[in-house]
Fold this protein.
Amino acid sequence: MRLATLLGPELKELLRDDPDQVRELLEEIHEQDLADLIGELEPEEQAKLLARLPAYEAAPIFERLEDHEQEELVDIMPPESVVQIASEMSPDERADLFSILPDAQAEELLDKLELVDPEAAEDVREIEKWPETSAGHLMTTDYVHVSENVSVGAAIAAVRVFGAEKSTPIYNVYAMATENNVRGVASLRDLILAQPEQQLEEILTQNIISVPPDMDQEEVARRMAKYDLNVMPVIDDTGAMLGVITIDDIVDVLTQEQTEDVQKLGAVEPLDVPYFQTSFVSFIRKRGTWLVLLFLGEFFTQTAMRYYDPVFEAIKGATYYVPLLISAGGNSGSQSSTLVIRGMAVGEIKARDWWRILVRELAMGTVLGTGLGVIGFGRVLMYRDQHVPFALTVALTLVGIVICGSTVGAMLPILLKRLGLDPATSSTPFIASLVDVLGIIIFVHVAMIVMATVIAGHGIP
Amino acid sequence: MRLATLLGPELKELLRDDPDQVRELLEEIHEQDLADLIGELEPEEQAKLLARLPAYEAAPIFERLEDHEQEELVDIMPPESVVQIASEMSPDERADLFSILPDAQAEELLDKLELVDPEAAEDVREIEKWPETSAGHLMTTDYVHVSENVSVGAAIAAVRVFGAEKSTPIYNVYAMATENNVRGVASLRDLILAQPEQQLEEILTQNIISVPPDMDQEEVARRMAKYDLNVMPVIDDTGAMLGVITIDDIVDVLTQEQTEDVQKLGAVEPLDVPYFQTSFVSFIRKRGTWLVLLFLGEFFTQTAMRYYDPVFEAIKGATYYVPLLISAGGNSGSQSSTLVIRGMAVGEIKARDWWRILVRELAMGTVLGTGLGVIGFGRVLMYRDQHVPFALTVALTLVGIVICGSTVGAMLPILLKRLGLDPATSSTPFIASLVDVLGIIIFVHVAMIVMATVIAGHGIP
């Protein structure tokens, strides 16, 4: 019987009752699917199951489990088994495991790993040295390298040795001038196309595109995307090669960074885990903080309106237009801030472009504001009790508010970037709150100019 | 002299004055960097330069130019040269070129290509058959395939033949049972690790993860990310292999889809080109449409307030609280809509989860709303002219509005998805506008209940 023909729930049952079957399953389905299935079992069952496998078979499943599943498993499995599995994991996944564990627990396990597999422990320390979102933290220290003076045949032999030992995919062989200094790179394709007796040197690509270990992962992603690379070497400022970053990690980085950006734009502190796995308390904290800050900021709208009470008293019904008018500013601001934030995230817009953007947004705000102003003018006059001066006030206010929204929305992310903060922090609601208060001030001042006589006489338009 | 040591502007000068230098440069810098440099020249200069190169050298540069640059070049270059270059491009880039050209021009060029390179023309038609954002449109028809019954050595020989002819990267060899039916796959790594005299069959991975040609590119990206694949075969429902999708295209898809999502969230119709390349008119259209729609929708706030005029008349200063109160609804709505939209985009949230989300958001809205309510209650009472009944009205309104915002924000994207629309259309400003009107209605009704006596007597609290 092909086990893979069973349905999910049946498979789960099978794994629970007879964990030995997992070895048979491994030959039929992808490790990722098996990890997904195992992820649905209780932690104790997962631990029992992984314990039945030799570490080199357990490792590829373990490293595909979700972070929180790994964390739970480490808590209930004997440390010796964890260390055995960690020793068989790929260096970047292994480093990830250690970085999600609480510091004390990680340190303790690392000491145990040191005894079993000193090289693996050293790799963890090398990778963990670099900041969480840097190239150094993303890299794996597993890659094939040979001396630059060998033949193509010898390079192929090195691939065989490496491949027999480790299950990581191999795409390139790096040719080293000294122990650490890389001279060039040859892909497996290059090796196969060459003659075994040729010198490796002859087929090397010498112009290596690399990243420094402290480069931010978003920048690494941009660079790999630009050059269509699957593997990017990490080289420090002394020219020493520290490891390689593979594209599958970059795909994860792009998705994760994007999720964070979108959540920030929506005024939510980025979640670390998916929606359904985020605890209620953590949600309240991550949403509540921004909600309260925005609420306190928005209180200025009330303060402003109260301050201008005589004006609003004078123009009957004027307050009823406030939400309409200020929302136009918030909307145009959210448009321009989104465009600028995204443009900066993908590298199309640099902070030094602020002047060109300001000019464009001023022009755009004027045109868009005038458009809304014309519509607003007509709409106000549709009420028989409203007159031209008030309609004109609404129209001119819209022009002013949309210009203000567009430029504030575009400039704030750039300002944040200059201050070294994340531009995405200027979320749509944040821009809206800021522009709301400005909008009220614009409205009142336009009204005072256009309707001076009305306001002076406390008459009703 | 190493040309690459020149600075950008000098290089541009050089390319402009002596286009023959480009061949020398090609050996020193990456084709992408050369394409970037060439992209800065005038279209006429670009055309002159590409004309100096044989088509097989011009193609990799041409395919790395921006879409709009390619379009301009096709307009000014002789169709014969374009066709020669197209014939040397990789099949997916070639198909992309034809899909950005106006239909008539594309058809004419395709007929010319047919005469020069019938196979290339056929590839274009095969790829263009599929919708713009589908797996079929993303794939390349270039991949190495051999009969399943050959030896490893023969498979390696096939890689050599393919590699000598085309410059595309090669990662896998597909073993075919019949002309079209794939039996299994072996990576170059597998081939190198095996013995040449071994049968290919013995080392094949038979459990191939593939996508159908009509699958949406976002789903393809998710699947490749899940299984950490660099190459994904496209297999139709008859089991025939049509081509492969490579990870570099997926990285581009992810970035592009994310840009579109973010722009929609900010209520901008997705731009097709970067900020600075988007024309003023196109901006006005892409921003203006939403701005006007939202403005018209927001007019209901004015209508609602006007309708409830007697209530607002009765409670002096109540209108001054409207922007504050309704913005709290917009903010909580933008939080929950962002979370749900992003959750659906990455596949964590399915439309069928709506019930669980509704329950969570109701609970979350209650807690967050109560929090804001307490703050609001205290803040109102800080004014000496405000009394407890009005403070209570503000507090209870906040609870109601935040619950309303959270649930509407979370449910609307799911509803849009069910209707077959893009959930990201329920942008932050859209949710805010919707919740604004609801907020006013909630405020008035809470006030009518809590302050019944005040309103009835038209007194001032």
DSSP finds 23 helices and five strands in chain A. The CA atoms of residues 50 and 58 of chain A lie 6 Å apart. Strands of chain A lie at 144-147, 172-176, 182-187, 231-235, 241-246.
